[in-house]
Give the backbone structure.
Amino acid sequence: MAIASSTPTTQPYPPVAFIGLGAMGFAMSTHLVRTGFPVTGYDIYGPTLDRWRATCKEIASASTSTGTTYATATSPAEAVRHASVVCLMVANHHHVHSALFDTQGGAAAVHALPRDVTVIIHATIPPTQPSSVRDRLTREFGRPDVKLIDAPVSGGVARSINGTLTIMVSSDDVDNLQDPNAKVVLENVASEGKTLFPIPGGLGAGQSAKALNQVQCGIHIPAASEIMGLAAINGLDTQKFYDALTARETAGGNPPVGWSWMFENRGPRMLSATPPLASATLIINKDVGIIRDEEVRLNVELPLLNTASDVITEVMKTHAAADDSCIVQSYLGFGSEREGLVVKQAGAGKSSAEATNQDNGGQASDRMTRDIATAHALIHLVAARETTKFAQALDLMRPEQKRQWFSIIAGAAGGSTVFSEVIPRAFEDAEGVEAGFQKYAQEKFPGALEMATGLLANAKKQGYMPVLLEAAVVNLKKLLT
């Protein structure tokens, strides 16, 4: 395991082993290298490891002050041998166990973990799994000295690169969260600690908080595609539609109704004929699968989330490894003439709706934009309600817990304008959470159900199936009656 650049004589940061260099792990680990941490990277896929090494070499060449060091390893055991902190950003809990315990021939990390090392699980895994890892460390391998932190992240690749991720941390010993080595690593990738949230409740509590965020994300990702496709089949300029839903009146202004973090993030990739691979469909499919398993375990139903899961599962059949922005093409029809309709209508000048309505100066186009944005907001409203139901099932409804998970989601990848507005109101309503949702829906969206029903009927005539909007309408009708 050769160090690929000169090692400084004094090192202000602890040595880190980073296992799992996919999109998120790659960005997080190279951010640590850029900061000045000595990082040893490992990934099971050789070309990824080669790319990581090349990127770190560029960072080291450009560095004038940090004395950047980095190394690559050929096994998890080799990666962790000299680490003070081990970060795991692998695909799922099976890979967590494999890297730590089950790699063949003595190459598993557990065989080389230094005394009193801290292991941080960044991967999104079922809430029951961190305790399973703790049990194996202690009982099976006799390593109670290893400090274990459950720390799932939210924020996407861009925030990984910038070190501004939202991270939800928990442990079986709260003192582990104050360990200087672990703390400096976590704070470095979480806005210098500003977006680092300690979650009470022991191991798995961080994953439960992440699962709440993923209810939102699991609905919002296909919803963003569904609504962009709906704009396209209704003849709107899709670039203008995207701009309208992501506009801010001022730099710090609130986004409009219909905005979600996922729509703003995925929109540019939907509008591109050659989108980069930033988040594969299989990732959100895995995260939603965890929630569906939790539905069974907790005996709670999340109908809109389940509908979203069905959409994602269908895309998985042919596009599991593609960027999840391809879901919009699934709605329009993979391989059909209108598969690329969103791209075709992006920035095309006058939309077809405006051209048809020149006599009223494009007012019909503006009205259609508002209607589809409102339809998107209705989906967000039901998503927020299901998130609250899931929080109740997870027993996360004490006042301090509600404040915490609301703050986490509102500032993370599950955020939406509607979520930020309705959740505080629902919490504060004297008649209860359901009454708060009902009053918000009645006051914020009068007549919206009738409008959405019309959009649905028109879309179906064109062979377009907005299944999330349809499920949201059914749910809201029940809420309002």
Q: What stands out?
A: Residues 1-9, 351-355 have pLDDT under 50 and may be disordered.
